[in-house]
Amino acid sequence: MINVLIVDDQTIVRAGFAALLDAQEDISVIGEAGDGREAVRIAERSRPDVVVMDIRMPGMDGIEATRRILALPGAENVRVLVLTTFDVDEYVYEALAVGASGFLLKDATADELVSAVRVVARGDSLLAPQVTGRLIREFTKQRRNRPQAPSELATLTARETEVLVLIAGGLSNGEIAARLVVSEHTVKTHVARVFTKLGLRDRAQAVMLAYESGVVVPGESAPG
Questions:
Q1: Biggest CA pair distance of the chain
Q2: N or C: which terminal CB in the chain sees fewer CB atoms within 10 Å?
Q3: pTM reported for the whole predicted model
Q4: Hey, what domains does the chain have and what are their CATH numbers?
Q5: How far is CA 213 from CA 34, 89, 141, 172, 206, in A?
Q6: Nearest Cα to 224, choosing from 191, 192, 176?
Q7: For residue range 57-92, what is the model confidence (pLDDT) as tens digits?
Q8: What mean pLDDT, rounded, does the chain reach?
């Protein structure tokens, strides 16, 4: 069962999301919050698997709430799915930077919302290359004129670096396996090692690091 906390300052939006998600056999809505501060209190008490987080809210916004929730003791497995009205939004970049696992547009279909919750719950990231990849490239290009590669990158093997680049290109484990002509199990092993060596939570943080450090240059596609 995937335990979900819904955070949105609009009561009718929360109610709609809750009704939709609670109707799924594998999803249970364990709480609702109208602002970031309340979301942190509920998350600290109930430890949801997934937080569906609105970004723009009065008081504590979704970015600060995401930062605080993911910093809670024992919150290592909590995943945050942020919501936004626009597909190019600086707030989304900030949310990914503080550890969110992906984002979804507020005009997404019911099926897309349900699928997104399941995706982040299993430890993957909702990073559609045509939307999130473009957003990350745009803001890293604007803000990171002189990227500084963290020293931990030097600990990656050549193959692990290649896997990191392909993750940044939006490829799934299966797609990386096909590209490298190896088994998906081998790719999972490489991904796990990359995350451990670089201290990453998930693929969203891997994408951010790859662009910010210069491992992937904005505008370049993944190697073919």
A1: 50
A2: C
A3: 0.75
A4: 2-126 (3.40.50.2300), 139-212 (1.10.10.10)
A5: 36, 21, 11, 21, 10
A6: 176
A7: 988 999 999 999 999 998 888 999 988 776 555 677
A8: 85
